[in-house]
Structures are given as C-alpha cells and as structure tokens.
Amino acid sequence: MNLILVTIFVFIFNLPFGYWRANVKKFSLQWILAIHLPVPFIIAARIYSNIGFELYTYPILVGSFFLGQLLGKYLYLRRKKLGQSPLTSCLVMDIVREN
After folding, report:
1. Mind listing the pLDDT tens digit for each residue in 76-89?
2. How large is the greatest C-alpha to C-alpha distance in the chain, in angstroms?
C-alpha cells in the first residue's frame, strides 16, 4: 500500500516540474533544475513511507517520475496549442489565473 501511495505522490509531484521544463531552453540551468529538484523529495518520501530502497521499487518509481514529467510537458504544450494565455512556467499559477 505504501508503494502505491508513494508512486501516486511521485507522479503528481512531477507534473508541475514537467510543465516548467517544457517552457525553458533545453539543457539550461532551469531545465536541469526542473528535472533534479524533485529527487530529494522523492528520496524523503521513500524514507518516511518505509518502502526503503528495494530493487523492485526502482522501476515503479522511476516510471512514475518520467510519466509525471511527460504529462506535465504535455499539459503545457496542449495549453499552448489551444492558445490559452498567459502561459508561464508555473502550472499552479496558470490554473489559478484561468479560474
């Protein structure tokens, strides 16, 4: 049960970072930060949920990490394609401004 909750947390936590990553220049400092800033929080979630660092947990959590990043990027590109403005690098602020 803990592994499922941590997987959901990792996925949802990475959505805004993928959104941010889609709006910055590739291989820039912001792009690198958008990928690597969530990692300490994921490690903390692993420790505090007591799932540990068993080998079978890595593919599940790495997969949810990348799916969260990809869906965040997809959300940004979709909003951009639909012409929703103003678009920023912050998913939360774009959603708040929209409503």
Report:
1. 999 999 987 778 88
2. 44
